[in-house]
Structure formats: C-alpha cells, structure tokens
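Quick one: co-fold with MU-OXO-diiron.
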Amino acid sequence: MYNTRKITEELYWVGANDHRTTLFENIHPIPRGVSYNAYLLLDQQTALLDTVDWSACRQLLDNLEHQLGGRELDWVVLHHMEPDHAASLQVVLDKYPKAKVAASAQAFRFLEQFGFQTGEHERRELKEGDSLSLGRHTLTFYTAPMVHWPEVLVSYDETTGALFSADAFGTFGALDGKLFADEVDFDRDWLEDARRYYVNIVGKYGVQVQTLLKKAAGLDIKLICPLHGPVWREELSYFLGKYDLWSRWAPEEPGVLIAYASMYGNTEAAAQALATQLVEQGVRRVEVRDVSTTHVSHLMDLTMRLSHVVLAGVTYNGGVFPPMAAFLEDMKALGLKDRTFAILENGTWAPAAGKLMAAAVEGLAGCSVLAPSIALRSALTEGGQEQLHELAQGIAESIK
Ligand code: FEO
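Sure, here it is.
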C-alpha cells in the first residue's frame, strides 16, 4: 500500500521508513528508526530522485506505482550510490523498462562493483554544472565529494528552489507520517539525532561540507530535500547554521562532557564529584556518561556539541580501558578539532591511562589538556577532592 507526501505541485516524497534496522551501517544505534527519502518529480518527463534501501523496496514500488498513476518513469537520478539509497535501483529498472539512469561516472563504477545491474537502460553521466531538463523543472548538478562518499552529487531545481542534498542535512529518525521539519519540534526531538548523524556519518569531512555550503550560498534555496529525515521549507538558516558550526568543529555551546570508565564505581564517584564541583562553579551544562554503556556515537555527539571533555579512566592491561580507547580512536578517526580536555586517571598499581589518554588528545588538532591532571590511587580521598576542586575551577575559568 502506498504512503506518499506531496511537497509541491509536482514534487512528491515516495520514500520509506525503517523501524526494523537497529544499527545504521550496522554500527550506529537507531532506536527511533530511519527514513530513506526518495523523491518523484512529475513533469513532462518523470524522474525518481534516488531509491531506497533493499529492505524498503516494496514500499518504494507501491509509492511509485500510485504516484505515477500509469505514467512511464523516464529517469532515475542517483545522487548517492551507497546501498541505503541505490540498492533498489535494479528492481525499479526492471519494473520501468524505459527509464534512463543519471548519475556521476564514479557512481556508475560503484554500481558495477556492488553488482547492481542497469542492463540496457540508457545511462547519462553527470558532472559539475550539468543540467537535466524534465520540462518545467531543470535539475542542475553540483559535485559534493565525501559528503559522504566520493561520487556524491547534489542538485538544485530553480523552479521549486529545491536542493536535493543527498546525505547532507540528513538525520537519524523515522518520519512516521511527518515530512517537514516544521511539522515536528526539531530542536527538542530531532537535533540530537541530526548532530549524531552528522558527526558520525559526515563529521570527518568538514572541509568538504564547507565547500558544499559555499556552493549552496550561491543558490536561492527554498527547500532542502535530504536523503534521510525531515524536508526543510521554513527557517532553513537554522539548519544551515548548525551545519556551518559542525563542519568547522565549533562547539554549539560551552559545557563539559565527563566521560568515565569505571570498573568498581570509584572512578564513577570521582566523575560525579567533579560534576558537582563544576555545577557549583557555575558551569550550566555538565553531561556525565559511562563509556561502557554509552554507544560511542552518542559520546561523539556530545563531544561535538560541547566545548570541554573530561576523560576519567582506569588503567586496564597496562593501557587505556577498551571502551575509552574506542572513544579516543573515534575522535581521531573523525578528525575532532579544537576541544579542551581534562584528565582524571585511576589505577591501583602502575597507572598508565592518564599519560596515554593525554597523549591521544594532545595529538588532535587544536586540542589541549588543562592542568592539573588528577591521578587517583583506587579511590577518591580528601586530598583528591581538593584536586577536583582545583580542576573544576580551572575548567570553569576556561569556559568563561
Ligand atoms: Fe545515506 Fe551515505 O548514505
């Protein structure tokens, strides 16, 4: 059964929601699900803009059949070849034998690598500045390499002012009947998932996102149509502004993430004591997370959001506690920049984690470690409380 939404007179959302997949890319938890957005332009020629994940193919086919109303499908445009958007291509082409396929040359190569067949269907290779005229609507294409794969294109339709932005401006979260960002409380209910999606999916490629934002600044954009999550038709500057901040690794607000690794609760107790000291010093935003039970995608979300990170960790097998090591590895892999850290280590004998954690973050661009670093021996003492007080003062001062 079809389930579509009208965007403008000739533009429809024909995508699908997915609540069955629990891990996006088989790594990031998505308890609110995810949407795979596909769009249909009904012009003199019809064009499907992207397909959906294999798991949602049936919904796409039902939506297409309903919305085409017996018309031929003339074009399938692939902005992004990753299988969450291109896996249904072959089935769509089998059903619509006259459809031509438009994508970048690299996308066509990737399709072949994945074994997705386009058979006898006519292909059109797209590059920067190319246009595809459908009648009243003409799509102009711009390359957006590494946002989030190298073959990515975005397109702009001057008639509607729609930017089809591929993965850019996407979010985790299924739409569940809503389509437009102004139909939800985005700031309350979606922003965290949007930031978590950004930092974990696109975060490594901030420079390329800045390049895309500069291209977008030259266009009169009235709609942003991403491949995941809500479509934007109001207050576009709100989300464009977030992308500008995130792609420069600028913190959204001053505040402290205390990420702790604790085997028997003593490091956790020190982390909590530090949180209390910080709040008493006037720090308004303090978030405390256990790295053993908080997925690293959420830790990275908070690291992007806030200005300061305290790493409170134990020594394990002579090194850093494994979930903390994974967090540090993710910071490096995603190219984290410009954060202020503080270090609290705990060890019963031969503690080593403090030096290792400090070395890891001091190797990140624009990142530094505040003094004093605190070294506990098994549990917090009165002397340790005094050190925490001094550290909290230093962090609060640094935030001011
Ligand atoms: Fe939603 Fe990069 O695929």
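If it helps, The longest helix spans residues 382-399.
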